[in-house]
C-alpha cells in the first residue's frame, strides 16, 4: 500500500498526489461507463490514502445521499447494507458544504454526539462534499477502522480535489443521459408517426450493434453507431402524413419529398451535442 500524503515523503508524496489526480481526471473524462469508473477511482483512493474503505454517495431526487460505489482495500465492492458510516458526519458535510477529517474519531470531541462513530468503531475518517455550482450533489467518504492518525489536511485536500473532478463527471453523465433520452423520444415520435415502419428503428439499431460487435469496434464507436442507428430516420418527422402513410406507390414528387428526410434529419439534430460522425 502506498504511503499516505501526510507521511514522510515530501516532494514524492506531492508527486504521487498529482499523479493520482491526473489519473482520476483521465478516468472520468475517457470512460463511457460512469458507474464502472467510480469503482476504479475508489480503488485508487483507497490505495493512495491508505484507507480501509472508500465510497461515493450521490444525492437522490430529495437530496438524500445514496451509495453509488463502495470499495474495500482488497478492491472488491461493498454492498450498501454492509457499509456502515457516521451518518452524523455525512449530514454535517452536506449542511456546511465543507470537508471533515479526523485522525481519531473515537477521541474527537466534534463527533462525541455521533453514536455511529462508536458503534462502528470508526477511527480515521474523512469526507468531502461533491459541489456543482454551490449545490451538494454527493460526497466522497473514506475511513480506516483499524488505525488512527491515517488522514490529515493534505489528505483532505486531495480528497476534495477528487470530489471536484467527480462533480464535473457527474454533471456530464447527467447531461449525457438527458441527451440519450431526448434521442429516444425523437425516434419514438417518428415511429408513432409512421405506422408502416413501426419497429424499424429498433431492428436497425439491433443489427447495427450486432455488426459493430462482430467487427470489434471500440466502445466509443459502438456508442456512436447505436446513436446514429436510432436517429437515422428522424427527418421523417418533417414528411407529411399523407406521404408517409400512403398505402400505394409514391409518385415522383412524393418520392422527392421523402428523399429529403435524411437532409432534414441532419438539420434537426444539428443543435444536439453529438460527434460529427453521428450527424
Structure description:
This protein is an alpha+beta fold and 279 residues long. It is 51% helix and 13% strand. The chain is built from ten helices and five strands, in the order H-H-E-E-H-E-H-E-E-H-H-H-H-H-H. A five-stranded antiparallel beta sheet has the order 2-1-5-4-3, with helices on both faces. Helix 1 runs antiparallel to helix 2.
Coarse morphology: elongated
Helices, by number, come to: 10
Q: Walk across the major sheet and give the strand order.
A: 2-1-5-4-3
What portion of the residues fall into strands of 2 or more residues?
A: 5-15%
Return the string of H and E elements. HHEEHEHEEHHHHHH
Would you tell me the overall average pLDDT? 77
Gyration radius over CA: 25 Å
Short description:
This protein has 279 residues and is of the alpha+beta class.
Describe the secondary structure blueprint for this structure.
Layout: H1 11-30, H2 34-49, E1 53-59, E2 65-72, H3 87-96, E3 100-102, H4 115-119, E4 124-132, E5 135-144, H5 153-193, H6 200-215, H7 219-231, H8 241-244, H9 252-259, H10 261-269
Antiparallel strand pairs: 1-2, 1-5, 3-4, 4-5
Helix pairs in contact: 1-2, 1-5, 6-7
Which descriptors would you attach to this protein?
51% helix, alpha+beta, 5-stranded antiparallel β-sheet, 5 strands
Amino acid at each position: 500500500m502506498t504511503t499516505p500524503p501526510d507521511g514522510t515523503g515530501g516532494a514524492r508524496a506531492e508527486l504521487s498526489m498529482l499523479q493520482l489526480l491526473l489519473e482520476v481526471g483521465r478516468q472520468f473524462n475517457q470512460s463511457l461507463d460512469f458507474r464502472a469508473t467510480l469503482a476504479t477511482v475508489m480503488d485508487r483512493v483507497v490505495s493512495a490514502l491508505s484507507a480501509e474503505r472508500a465510497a461515493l454517495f450521490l444525492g437522490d431526487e430529495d437530496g438524500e445521499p445514496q451509495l453509488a460505489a463502495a470499495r474495500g482495500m482488497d478492491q472488491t465492492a461493498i454492498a450498501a447494507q454492509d457499509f456502515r458510516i457516521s451518518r452524523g458526519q455525512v449530514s454535517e458535510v452536506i449542511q456546511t458544504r465543507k470537508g471533515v477529517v479526523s485522525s481519531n474519531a473515537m477521541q474527537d470531541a466534534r463527533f462525541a454526539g455521533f453514536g455511529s462513530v462508536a458503534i462502528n468503531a470508526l477511527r480515521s475518517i474523512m469526507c468531502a462534499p461533491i459541489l456543482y455550482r454551490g449545490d451538494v450533489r454527493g460526497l466522497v467518504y473514506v475511513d480506516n477502522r483499524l488505525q488512527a492518525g491515517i488522514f490529515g489536511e493534505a489528505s483532505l485536500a486531495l480528497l476534495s480535489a477528487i470530489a471536484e473532478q467527480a462533480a464535473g463527471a457527474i454533471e456530464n453523465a447527467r447531461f449525457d443521459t438527458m441527451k440519450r433520452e431526448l434521442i429516444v423520444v425523437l425516434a419514438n415520435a417518428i415511429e408513432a408517426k409512421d405506422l408502416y415502419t413501426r419497429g424499424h428503428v429498433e431492428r436497425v439499431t439491433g443489427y447495427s450493434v450486432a455488426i459493430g460487435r462482430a467487427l470489434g469496434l471500440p466502445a466509443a464507436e459502438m456508442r456512436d453507431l447505436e446513436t446514429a442507428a436510432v436517429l437515422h430516420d428522424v427527418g421523417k418527422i418533417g414528411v407529411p402524413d399523407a406521404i408517409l402513410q400512403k398505402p400505394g406507390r409514391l409518385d415522383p414528387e412524393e418520392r422527392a419529398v421523402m428523399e429529403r428526410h435524411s437532409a432534414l434529419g441532419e438539420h434537426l439534430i444539428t443543435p444536439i451535442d453529438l460527434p460529427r460522425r453521428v450527424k
